Amino acid sequence: MIDSYTFGAMVINGERYTSDLILYPNRVDASWWRTEGHRVGIEDLQEIVNEQPEYLVIGTGEPGMMRVPPETRDYLQRQQIQLVVEPTERAYQTYNKLMATARTVGAFHLTC
């Protein structure tokens, strides 16, 4: 569960993280870096797809600068993964709600 988010930092189960991260059902990958920094490509999501979540929640940063292009959205739909894309402040709250009832992965950009 995500305890809190402020620009540049996220607290998960009491532990503070200061880099972009992926939150899987059983672990945190605190080294999420995309091929193109503010664009989420298909190649950036392979490990997530392998987890076969019902939902993927992507936090696009505080002002929502990170983008998820149509080809990435289409790819996830073909994989039968429901995608939620929101600024990180909203996305972490959505993640907390979904993870209580569905297999959910969250990928969060913590800054811009």
Automatic annotation (TrEMBL):
One of its GO terms (cellular component) is cytoplasm. SUPFAM superfamilies: MTH938-like (SSF64076). It comes from the Bacteria. This is Mth938-like domain-containing protein. It comes from candidate division KSB3 bacterium.
